[in-house]
Write a structure and sequence with these properties.
Helices cover 50% and strands 25% of the residues. The chain is of the alpha+beta class.
């Protein structure tokens, strides 16, 4: 008896496999055998023909696993229907044995795969950076991994499991959060990013973020809650610091006396700056320019002030592209005011401007300059008049001195007499 792959289209074999029934060929001639055989088998049958054969399907648990066949090469020794019944009995027993062997092999493979999966899970569980846990509905731990125990300040997973008997009361700063979490899990929700403020074993607190779900049996009953937990204290502190910083920035932004605006530069297809859009504007901007914030916000410069000189778009474009700051004082024809301005770029393509209205200052400087010039003219006039007065005094003094000299001479003569 020889086993080989059988094609479903191979005549009598097809009958056995497709109809799942035994077949008896009591007698067959060599010519008929060769004619009905598959091409690759004809040479074999010419050398070793058989004269009688019977085939029985191998079926178990509603499945056809193959077939069992016997052939006689001796003429005049045909198989009988009793032989076929006997063969089918053997086939049924063989099929059951094959099915059991296949089932056992499959179970062994599944067990091996499960062991590999369990080992992988154990390695992940034991060596994970984040906490992994299983807990009951009434607030006790089934399992915790080493990272979870360390996170909460316990010596070991066993120490944590033994000593935490009421998760809500012992671990949550706000126990109501655990109650709310439990209700959501019972309803079937899978929860991600659940943040809570928790207690460590020593009473200190820290922030955690949890991903958790309920694990149920085949009937839908909850067995336990299973999840992962991450210490987010540092990120929470950073987030709080950022929020506080944003509050301070907003407070400064809203109350600073200088105008402040953030803009996004607009470029043409060649990368040349052609316009810019107002992204953020503080109240002082409106107060200093007289232009309402709601008119500017989200609009471009050319939409609001189409006659603005291209020079300033190029200057601000340079700031936004290179990050080089710019400080200047300029006169705005549109607004009729002077502004001291400082422009800088917080990121590429964005620039911010801080400015103050210095119109009165410039006018005062111009007035002072004008007064200085007038004063200088008056000083020059006075100096000229002083020079004339000095010359006049000299002349008068000379003219007065001459008659006095003569009189003084006559008095001298009189004293001699």
């Amino acid at each position: 008896m020889q086993a080989r792959p059988i094609r479903i289209t191979e005549g009598i074999y097809a009958q056995v496999l497709t109809k799942d029934e035994a077949v008896l060929i009591a007698s067959i001639s060599q010519d008929e055998l060769i004619e009905r055989a598959a091409p690759e088998r004809r040479g074999y049958y010419r050398k070793l023909p058989f004269h009688s054969m019977m085939l029985a399907p191998l079926h178990a648990q509603g499945k056809t696993l193959g077939m069992l066949g016997l052939a006689r090469h001796t003429p005049n020794h045909s198989y009988t229907p009793d032989d076929l019944v006997f063969l089918q009995d053997i086939a049924d027993r063989s099929a059951l044995a094959i099915f059991s062997a296949q089932l056992y092999q499959k179970l062994e493979q599944e067990l091996a795969e499960r062991k590999i999966a369990e080992e992988r899970y154990r390695l992940i569980f034991e060596n994970a950076i984040d906490g992994i846990f299983q807990s009951t509905l009434d607030g006790k731990f089934v399992r915790v991994n080493p990272a979870m125990a360390r996170m909460y300040g316990y010596d070991s997973p066993q120490d944590m499991s033994d000593n935490v008997t009421d998760i809500a009361a012992q671990l949550y700063v706000d126990p109501k959060l655990r109650i709310m979490l439990r209700q959501r899990l019972i309803s079937g929700e899978q929860i991600t990013g659940f943040e809570s403020h928790d207690y460590r074993k020593d009473g200190s607190t820290f922030w955690t973020s949890m991903n958790v779900q309920s694990i149920r049996d085949a009937n839908g009953n909850i067995l336990f809650f299973e999840g992962t937990l991450e210490d987010i204290t540092k990120s929470k502190q950073s987030q709080d610091a950022l929020i506080e910083s944003e509050k301070k920035y907003r407070l400064l932004f809203e109350n600073m006396t200088s105008g402040f605006a953030v803009h996004k530069m607009i470029y043409d297809e060649n990368g040349k700056p052609v316009d810019y859009r107002y992204l953020e504007i503080n109240p002082a901007f409106e107060r200093l320019t007289g232009v309402p914030v709601n008119v500017l916000l989200g609009k471009t410069l050319k939409e609001i002030m189409p006659d603005t000189e291209e020079y300033w778009i190029e200057k601000f474009g340079h700031v936004a592209s290179t990050g080089e700051p710019l400080a200047y004082t300029n006169f705005s024809r549109e607004l009729g005011k002077y502004y001291d301005t400082y422009a800088f770029s917080p990121e590429k393509g964005i620039f911010a401007v801080i400015f103050n209205d210095v119109t009165e200052k410039i006018k005062a400087q111009e007035e002072v300059q004008k007064l200085n010039e007038e004063l200088q003219e008056r000083v020059s006039e006075l100096e000229a008049k002083n020079t004339e007065l000095t010359q006049f005094t000299y002349t008068v003094s000379h003219d007065l001195k001459s008659p006095l000299v003569t009189i003084n001479g006559y008095l001298g003569y009189l004293e001699q007499d």
